[in-house]
Q: What sequence folds into this?
């Protein structure tokens, strides 16, 4: 193959979702996913905590989550194939943000934004929290913010695979190769160069390279402030059940949620250099962390660490938000990058918005313009304050 309509660089959940929507909206479009790691061993989409929340501080992120939860609930209808039913194991016990007294003003501000955007969230005082979660220590908690619906977790790698399979059933090609360069003028990209030696001419190019997005952007001479930011996830077992346990965010910064009969947990990293090796940072599992977990949930005093894994957040260091849409000068180069650790839940909506932008010149189902590339050029950050860990 030497020519295609659309080349998508990277086939993690973003590339796969974009390919799915493009070929669903325009079935005769020739779309080629180029993927260097078809086992997805390092892809964020394989290493995600795969949770979904409505509790963001940017309305555009709430819109993407509202679309995301509706899509997840209806995933079989969107992505099911006769020989591949879609089983995502979606559960919706909510996210619970806990605040100490000095953090309550920020929680009230976020709550106001979320209610205005139509999110189903409630603020709960310590007594209400104690009644709902008797296993939770709230002696030093002033306020909690709970998602009453539309928040929880699901099988993210299964969602990724379902997007891929459905896209390929709709005619998308996946090439096992690495994009190593781009041929471009000042106005457009004309072809991508492949590690295997070939050249793939194309009408449009999508950067869906996750934590490696800035390397791919550089091939077109574009600077993209996205870094591979390592995060470690610990798998814990607790001898006692914690009924109705939500995804809990402690005032000290760690998070924890059930995962089958285990729990998974993470915290702000100790080491923050970009591109650290994908190995768990066991130094994050220290006495202080253990004591903090056991303080909040006394049953966790008897926890066991079963194992750990590490993955990369595709961190947008400019404002912790996604970049979706075309480059202002290279008009046929598109971005779907920088989700900064909350992309799995936004993949369905982001892929749809980008596909509409590519086919019709604007996203019509939901407005995502504020996530466009222009804000980087004009130094207008759109800061998402609710970034976890
Ligand atoms: C520990 C952790 C916890 C997370 N928790 C959550 C969560 O709870 N909720 C949530 O919504 N999100 C979460 N995320 C974030 C979410 O997983 C990511 O936002 C999402 O998976 C990003 O998908 P992607 O397709 O952009 O990137 P990836 O899945 O990394 O895919 C990019 C692909 O591009 C390929 N590629 C790169 N360069 C090239 C090239 N030159 N040529 C060919 N192929 C190339 C790579 O091989 C890779 O397969 C978490 C992430 C991590 C790491």
A:
């Amino acid at each position: 193959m030497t020519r295609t309509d659309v080349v998508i660089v990277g086939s993690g959940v973003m590339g796969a979702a974009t390919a799915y929507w493009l070929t669903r909206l325009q079935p005769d479009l020739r779309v080629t996913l180029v993927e260097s790691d078809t086992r997805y061993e390092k892809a964020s989409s394989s290493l995600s905590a795969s949770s979904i929340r409505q509790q963001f501080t940017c309305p555009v992120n709430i819109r993407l989550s509202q679309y995301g939860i509706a899509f997840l609930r209806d995933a079989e209808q969107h992505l099911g194939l006769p020989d591949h039913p879609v089983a995502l194991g979606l559960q919706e016990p909510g996210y619970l943000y806990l605040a100490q007294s000095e953090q309550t003003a920020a929680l009230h501000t976020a709550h106001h934004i979320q209610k205005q955007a139509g999110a189903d969230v409630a603020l709960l005082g310590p007594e209400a929290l104690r009644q709902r979660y008797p296993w939770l220590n709230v002696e030093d908690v002033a306020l909690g913010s709970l998602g009453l619906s539309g928040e929880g977790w699901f099988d993210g790698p299964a969602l990724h695979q379902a997007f891929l399979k459905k896209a390929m059933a709709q005619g998308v090609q996946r090439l096992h190769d690495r994009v190593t360069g781009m041929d471009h003028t000042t106005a457009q990209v004309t072809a991508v160069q492949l590690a295997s030696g070939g050249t793939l001419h194309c009408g449009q190019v999508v950067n869906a390279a996750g934590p490696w997005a800035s390397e791919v952007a550089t091939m077109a001479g574009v600077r993209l402030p996205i870094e591979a930011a390592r995060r470690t996830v610990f798998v814990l077992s607790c001898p006692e059940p914690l009924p109705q346990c939500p995804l809990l965010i402690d005032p000290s910064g760690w998070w924890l949620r059930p995962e089958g009969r285990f729990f998974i947990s993470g915290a702000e990293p100790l080491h923050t250099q970009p591109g650290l090796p994908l190995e768990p940072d066991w130094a994050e599992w220290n006495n202080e962390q253990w004591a903090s977990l056991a303080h909040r949930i006394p049953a966790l005093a008897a926890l066991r660490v079963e194992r750990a894994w590490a993955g990369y957040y595709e961190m947008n260091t400019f404002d912790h938000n996604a970049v979706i849409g075309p480059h202002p000068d290279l008009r046929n180069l598109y971005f779907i990058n920088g989700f900064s650790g909350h992309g799995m839940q936004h993949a369905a909506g982001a892929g749809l918005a980008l596909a509409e932008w590519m086919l019709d010149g604007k996203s019509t189902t939901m407005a995502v313009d504020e996530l466009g590339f222009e804000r980087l050029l004009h130094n207008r950050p759109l800061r998402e304050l609710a970034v976890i860990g």
Notes: The chain has a mean pLDDT of 96. The longest strand covers residues 304-316.
